[in-house]
Each structure stands twice: as structure tokens, then as C-alpha cells.
Amino acid sequence: MFATPLIYVLLLLLTDSVFSKSVELTFELPDSAEECFYQDIEKDISASLEYQVITGGQYDVDVKIEGPNKQIIYQQQKMQYDSHQFTAQYTGVYKVCFSNEFSTFSHKLVYMELNVGPELPLPGVGDHATVLTQLETSAEEIHSALNRIIDHQTHHRLREAQGRKRAEDLNERVFWWSIGETLAIFCVTFAQVMILKNFFSDRPSLYK
User: Fold this and answer.
1) What is the pTM of this model?
2) Which of 40, 53, 131, 157 is most exposed by smallest CB count within 10 Å?
């Protein structure tokens, strides 16, 4: 009796994730390069962009959103993270570009999430005028809770990845600094030994 409602809820959540107009990805942005993504958006449909630089350089990137008529909707330079929401003025292909052209040697790892349109309701829920059943209400609550959990997990993973990368960079710098100090100590020790050796070495007498 309990397995059937649970399977029904899982099927609803799976169907909703399939038809959801959301793009979430992490990609590598090489140095002196630009990556663009394209999305069809209809007029008067709202969309939101959220991004964050996870690793690389000063953790900054240039971002631009361009409409189908080449109009600039959003443009920022050397941003570490930000979010922007807009409503499409025209139907067509919108372009989101991330640029690392100002960097000549450091590549970046960038996280991006693009949501288009309102969140789709669960299939079968809200299609009738009667009051929602207890199962439908529970399905909506589970759906909302899972979405919040996914958002929190995503942000925590991004923070963890960024913190781990910074710790690895710091550890590498400390390692090479320690190597340099060790070599300097050996050089100073060797020089001191050679100087002391010259002080106590036998010198030829000037008088026979």
C-alpha cells in the first residue's frame, strides 16, 4: 500500500525533471578564449542566469547576454559570481558568452545555471478544479523540498570545490617556498663551511 504512492511521486518528479527548461553545467574556459551558449526563448518569457568561477586565476570572468537583435541585455567584466534575471523582448535565440580573453596563462572552471520560464507544475496536479488530495499535496511538498535541497547542495559543492582549490594552491606555494628555503639553508651552510675551512687550512710560510 505504501509502495504505490511512493512510486507515483517518484514518477512525477522524474517527468518534471525531463520537461524542465533548465540548463546547469560546469565547463572549462581556456586562457584567451570565449565560450558561448545559445537558447531559444519566446517573447515575454522570463529567464535567469546564475554563474560562479570555481577555479583559476583571480576567479573572474567576463559575461555577456546578447539578444536575437544583437542587443546587449547584460554585460559584466571580471566578475567572480553573479545572477541576472530578464524578460525576453523578442522571440529568438539568445546568446550567453563567457570570456577569458584578458587572461594569457590561467584557465578557469566556470559553473553556469540558466532557467527559462516558470517552473513547470507536477503532471496531473492542478489540472482539476477540485481540492488537491493528500497524495498530490504531499507530492508538491516533496517536489519543493527536493528543489531546495538540490540548490543548497549545488552551492555547497561549489564552495567546497573553490575552497579545496584554494587550499591546494596554498599548499603548492608553501611547498615550493619550503624547497627554496631548504636550498638557501644548504647554500649558506656550505659557504660557511668553506669559509671556516679556509681559516684553518695550512698556509705556506713566507720565511724559510
Assistant:
1) 0.63
2) 131
